[in-house]
Amino acid sequence: MADVETDRDGAGKRPRGGREYGHGPAEAAERAWTPWLVPVLLVAFVAVFVVEMYVNNCPDHPQPFGRCVARFLHRFSFQPISQNPLLGPSSSTLEKMGALQWNNVVYQNQGWRLVTCIWLHAGLIHLLANLFSLLFIGVRLEQQFGFVRIGVIYLLSGFGGSVLSALLLMNNISVGASGALFGLLGAMFSELIINWTIYSNRVAALLTLLVIIIINLGIGLFPHVDNIAHIGGFVSGFLLGFVLLIQPRVGWMERDDLPPSAQVTSKYKAYQCVLWVIAFLLLIAGFAISSVMLFRGVNGNDHCHWCRYLNCVPTSRWSCED
User: Fold this and answer.
1) Any residues with CB less than 8 A from the CB of 262 and at least 6 apart, and which?
2) In angstroms, what CA-CA distances link 168 with 65, 173, 240?
3) Could you give the CA distance from residue 155 to residue 138 in angstroms, rounded to a whole number?
4) CA atoms within a 13 Å half-sphere pointing along the CA-CB vector of 269
5) Which of 68, 86, 167, 259 shows a CA-CA span of 20 to 30 A to 300?
6) Do 155 and 80 meet the contact criterion of CB atoms below 8 Å apart?
7) What is the C-alpha separation between 306 and 193, in angstroms, rounded?
8) Residue-wise pLDDT tens digits, 174-230
9) Which sequence positions are flagged as catalytic?
10) Which residues pair with 173 in a beta bridge?
11) What is the distance between the alpha carbons of residues 79 and 224, in angstroms, rounded to a whole number?
């Protein structure tokens, strides 16, 4: 990712030959932002999960699936493995605390579930996976672009993933920050594309990101993983990255120090402006159309019969039915 200039008033310098994509020792001193949003999110996820387990209170409820796991934790113990292999609460507890469920959103006017579900986790394993992912991706982005832009991308990507998931997975409940995390990954991808001429090692960075994205989306084709939320979050973050993470062309920041014949006359290149406009229009249209479809009770599968295979591919070894 690109490091932002230390001086945002134009005093910062960028080498005309292009910058390395990623962090190096020489770039550490140039970072303009101290991350605090991502650490706050990490703490919030842990706190909400503790509340989930407190509300769940496994020992106080009959367990037809077996004994509670880690009973020494008392009311914070986990549901039986056969019920929740991720070491977490029951589905009814998650639904009570705000899990995404199509019927509740459409017919009970509980649109707030589109946001609350991204703060919940299905189990300890699910929580730890998302904590490490957010730490790895989020801190790096916040250091470079600040908490406002990254916070907007995170929340809107999570919302986009929730809307698409509700449209296509009508009979399931969904929780987790994975859609928002995939949005950050998508934003990294589009940021590299729209700021293509700034970097010197762009092809290697692009291939690396593509491999990471393909692997993560591929994992989502297994059962019990909400890959639709991953895809919705990724697409939302991809478009938001074009809109929010665009950076000035090489030579703009140091134009006052250059002779008139060498000064650039526009802040952004033409292709950057074109990508920004296209992404902005697609973003507005996508959120508007999908939200209207959802709240009108439209079944997304009626318009996309093959979309279910984006969430899970059935094989002889497993079924995609819950």
Assistant:
1) 251
2) 29, 12, 22
3) 12
4) 14
5) 86
6) no
7) 29
8) 888 889 999 999 999 899 889 887 777 777 777 877 887 787 777 666 555 678 888
9) 178, 230
10) 101
11) 17
Tokens encoding 192? 């590299």
Q: Which amino acid is at 178?
A: S
Structure tokens at 282: 């697609």
Q: Give pLDDT, residue 153.
A: 96
Amino acid in the structure at residue 25 = P
Model confidence over 117-141: pLDDT tens digits? 999 988 888 888 889 888 888 888 8
Q: Give, to the nearest 10 degrees, the angle between helix 124-145 and helix 37-56.
A: 160
Percentage of the chain lying above the pLDDT 90 cut: 30
What phi and psi values does residue 101 have, to the nearest 5 degrees? -145, 125
